[in-house]
Write a structure and sequence with these properties.
Blueprint: H1 3-10, H2 12-25, E1 36-40, H3 46-52, E2 62-67, H4 70-80, E3 86-90, H5 97-102, E4 107-113, H6 122-130, E5 134-143
Parallel strand pairs: 1-2, 1-4, 2-3, 4-5
Helix pairs in contact: 1-4, 2-3
Organism: Pyrocoelia pectoralis
InterPro entries: Methyltranfer_dom, SAM-dependent_MTases_sf
Protein name: Methyltransferase domain-containing protein
């Protein structure tokens, strides 16, 4: 079983949490036409495609899902990539400065559900890259899992 298959097999709780969160947030988010959206820690793209994409405005310009795992990104592009609308890229959110430089001040909304608690250098990831890539008055929606 490769990493993508393992991810899918064990990701149900995270998908339920993301669904619950986006159902609550969707009505509160001030969406705008032609927005650009980033999903950090997209894994296999299931949450991006089935949970996030349906609540985005129909006029959404671009949705990019990023994850550090090559096999999950390959799976996401193969199964959910939509030309010119939904794409997935392998990106290390702590150290891949090229991606973030290319998209500086691009994203109107950044989502990260059940991902950043796995990142050891959270402060670096948040301060140096993600928050710099939000368009003025953009939104960053973050969901971390509590561990007991």
């Amino acid at each position: 079983m490769d990493k993508a298959e393992t991810f899918i097999k064990h990701n149900s709780p995270a998908e339920r949490e993301a669904k619950y969160a986006i159902d609550k947030l969707a009505q509160l988010i001030p969406w705008k036409d032609n927005c650009n959206i980033l999903d950090i820690g997209c894994g296999t793209g299931n949450v991006t495609h089935y949970i996030l994409l349906p609540v985005f405005p129909k006029s959404t310009k671009n949705v990019i899902g990023v994850d550090n795992n090559k096999s999950t990104i390959e799976y996401a592009n193969k199964n959910y990539g939509l030309e010119n609308k939904l794409t997935f890229q392998q990106v290390d959110v702590v150290s891949d400065s090229t991606f973030f430089e290319n998209y500086e001040k691009t994203f109107d909304h950044i989502f990260s559900f059940s991902c950043l608690h796995f990142v050891r250098e959270q402060e670096t990831a948040l301060n140096n890259q993600h928050l710099q890539n939000i368009e003025t008055r953009g939104r960053f929606q973050l969901l971390l899992r509590g561990i007991q």
